[in-house]
Amino acid sequence: MTIVKDVETRGMHHCETTALGVLLRHEGLDLSEPMLFGLGSGLSFIYWDGKGMPFPFLGGRVRPFDLTRNLAARLGLTLTVEETASPRKAWQNVATPIDAGRPVGLQLDCYHLDYFQSKVHFGGHVVAMYGYDEHDAYLVDTGQQGGAVRTSRDSLARARAERGPMTARNRSFTVTLPARPPSWQDQIIPAVRDCAEAFLAAPIANLGYRGIAKAAGQVPGWLLRAGEPRRDLPQAALLMEKGGTGGGLFRALYRDFLDECTRLIDDGGLRTGHRLYAEAAALWTDVAALITKAGESGDPGYLDQAGAVLHELSRIERDAMQTLRQL
């Protein structure tokens, strides 16, 4: 058995920030999960209903791994990324740093992981790996999935090699702090401004605040869109609140990030942004509850209510980001 020493196996709310937290704490930098998410300019929105998709996807954050890239650039980290189509090389890319005493981040499809509670294909899942033995790999996943967990090496290989939307070719990565790390506090305002600019200036109507308005118009038709409404709608709502796909989890993270920022920086714009995202987080929870009720009851009135709340959320988040862009 090979186990990296001094790894804190703390499972947080979101997969990518959980993995980044493990890697950065091992390097000596301990930031809260909301701060990791905010410094990585992680908040976004997409309404995606592609050809052949069984059900629409609501994404509440930037694309998988963009958060990691953003955070590395913001903090001056050395981000070393490996990708390969070779199973042998893929294992070597994770075993080598672990043998040298460093945890590794992995992007994979969670469907194949032995411990995963919900068997849904999602190729943008991220975990930290900190050890292995002859049969199993030792991982850190979200608190919801168990924090410190293990999966068979065979299942890990399948998860890493899966192809499809948002997957990567056996992607693994490590981070290294610079000899003189920059002050992360100085990066707060630039990170907030960049996130706000991207949210407001999204190039297509499926993204940003316009994407939320698009969802507002589409969600009322979800009973007809769903193959199995009693399954599909509650699952979509659960992912929004617990997985963060639609907005609930990520809006709560961004709310808490802005709250932490107001304790470090005395700025009225930050306080306004925090107030508006506190309101938005609560309303996203209301949307998820209404979608669940619609699936369970078959009553389209709940989806009409959800659409109305989403229209309000589009306005609130636009106003919040317009304020934050001017910091």
Automatic annotation (TrEMBL):
Pfam families recorded for this chain? BtrH_N, DUF4872
Which superkingdom, per the lineage?
Bacteria
Query: What are the residue boundaries of the Butirosin biosynthesis protein H N-terminal domain, all occurrences included?
Result: 14-142
This one is known as: Lantibiotic ABC transporter
Annotated DUF4872 domain ranges read 154-324
InterPro entries tied to this protein: BtrH_N, DUF4872
